[in-house]
Design a protein that fits this description.
Length: 170
């Protein structure tokens, strides 16, 4: 049985709620990717071009520091969750990927968004962990159903179990 980590950045709690359900569905450990400086409501105001999130988004080299490093070495599989910001992962996800050794690990991503698609997000992140075995990604709505979550985990081969048993436990 592989050891799985769900690492999640969640600015408002929406993505963390989905991350908790994913971790429960596959028996994973759950760790929060926390910024060294937490985001305030003003920081997250996407309509204010001067807000922290807008400034960070505009700078492709931006790597917001994490409050603490998350050790991925004990894990065979790492599932990374984040809200979708401007059709891509927030830059703190790049900080996370650059801070760990993902070589030989399965990596899958999920994001939450009201309507925006995942788009090219996985393609943007892959070069930051080129020796990982990337398993793709998915966008979930805030209230994704457990069968949808479990079907994704099986489809992207994050977990290998009997589908009937997994769905019966939904």
């Amino acid at each position: 049985m592989s050891k799985i980590l769900v690492a999640c950045f969640s600015a408002t709690g929406t993505t963390m709620a989905v991350a908790k359900r994913i971790a429960a569905a596959c028996g994973a450990d759950l760790r929060e990717i926390r910024p060294a400086v937490p985001y305030s409501a003003a920081d997250l105001d996407w309509t204010d071009k001067g807000s922290r999130s807008c400034r960070e988004n505009a700078d492709d080299a931006c790597r917001p520091p994490m409050a603490e490093k998350i050790d991925v070495t004990p894990y065979d599989t790492v599932i990374i969750g984040f809200p979708l910001w401007w059709y891509k992962a927030p830059h703190i996800i790049e900080t996370f990927l650059e801070s760990g050794d993902f070589a030989g690990r399965k990596v899958a991503v999920f994001c939450t968004s009201g309507s925006s698609p995942l788009g090219r997000t996985v393609d943007i992140l892959k070069p930051l962990a080129p020796k990982a075995e990337w398993k793709g990604g998915i966008r979930f709505a805030a209230h994704a159903a457990d069968p949808e979550i479990k079907a994704w985990l099986l489809n992207c081969e994050v977990i290998i179990v009997d589908l009937a048993v997994l769905l019966d436990n939904a």
